[in-house]
Amino acid sequence: MAHFAFVSAPASGHVNPTLPLVEELVRRGHRVSYATGPATMDAAVAAGASPVTLPSELPPDLASRGEFTAEQLAVTMEYYLDDARASFPVLAEHFLADRPDAVCYDSVTFTGRMLANLLDVPEVSLVPTFAENESFSAAQVYLPADFDHTHPRLVAAIQDMGKFAQGHSFLDDPNLMFGHVPPTSLVFVPREFQLAGDTFDERFHFVGPSLSSRQTAGEWSPRSSGPVLLISLGTVFNDRPEFYRTCIEAFGDSDWQVVMAVGGLDRQSLGPIPANVEVHAQVPQIAVLRHTEVFLSHAGMNSTMESLYHGVPFVAVPQIPEQQAIARRAEELQVGRTLTDPTVQGLRDAVQSVRSYRPRAAALSRVVRGAGGASKAADVLEQLLTQ
């Protein structure tokens, strides 16, 4: 049986989509070593992987980085470079002593590609959002029209990244963050949802999302016969008490059974909670989605795929450019609607209107579920090692 090394930044939005694949590989008798930071290691171990703990942490001010300005892109590049300087020696030491047959790495975690090049083993990019190729770049949809490519801090960050790459002669391509197209990519999105999907060739396997055993084990039951409205802004950009208060005003004391996940927000800041509204730090999202009529979401790709997996249309309140692009794609496919400035009446109207999208969401659910998921992804990895 084979040994696969997985490498990812310690972000749940990047680690979680890979966990069903880890489970499937382990079920087939393969060995998986998962390298990530302490914040996401428990989930990888629960999926059956052996831990390789990296000194990686997400920036504490991540929630404040909502726009893709040149300054913020420079800060992001600086973070990844600092992380690489600390993490790559740990990766190299561990896997030189315990060599994998292939390295599977999160698409933004270039230390994984560095490791594959160092060991001279196949590299596989794991893509939790829109994939990129020679003709389609996320910059086309994420960066604002007035983006300053000549910003001094950004220019310096790009130069520092280049110097770092030049210091590693084993790299097959010095482009660490931009421009590299891997020979094999597993994309946890169906081709039908991918932007410019018809431009992607056989190097890209659009396997779509899968559900891990941890997700499917969650339980939740409605408290009433009313339609369920799930509200969540995800795990990072969720410190929005004014948004939750507006939701309570819009749907409190209505026929809706409202289930609201607010993260670490102080519940007292929301004021009185009507009887038809549940407020939790976290909810078993998959279990709730099984009963949900409409999802009021930030439109993160994981939540979007989970919503569409269950045939649930959604109203998007995107917080960052990537989520705005996802929300626009959902609108194009008529499975979602976007609100940029949610008001009480605007929320009511949007939620009511997307209820008519349920047939389209159900049709896309069949596409999502039919993309192949973890089983297809594991097939691709096994075939890769036989070539």
Topology:
Layout: E1 3-7, H1 12-15, H2 19-27, E2 31-36, H3 38-46, E3 50-53, H4 70-97, E4 102-106, H5 110-119, E5 123-127, H6 139-142, H7 152-166, E6 185-187, E7 204-206, H8 213-216, E8 228-232, H9 241-251, E9 257-261, E10 277-280, H10 285-289, E11 292-297, H11 301-309, E12 314-316, H12 321-332, E13 336-338, H13 344-354, H14 358-369, H15 373-384
Helix pairs in contact: 2-15, 4-5, 4-7, 9-13
Characterize the structure shown.
This protein is α/β, with parallel strands linked by helices and 387 residues long. It folds into two domains: 3-210 and 372-384, Rossmann fold, CATH 3.40.50.2000; 215-369, 3-Layer(aba) Sandwich (Rossmann fold). Helices cover 40% and strands 15% of the residues. It has 15 helices and 13 strands. It has a seven-stranded parallel beta sheet with strand order 3-2-1-4-5-6-7, sandwiched between helices. It has a six-stranded parallel beta sheet with strand order 10-9-8-11-12-13, sandwiched between helices. Helix 4 (70-97) runs parallel beside helix 5. The longest helix is centred in the first third of the chain and has 28 residues, at 70-97. The two termini are 15 Å apart. The model has no long low-confidence stretch (mean pLDDT 93). This is Glycosyl transferase. Belongs to the UDP-glycosyltransferase family. Pfam families: UDPGT.
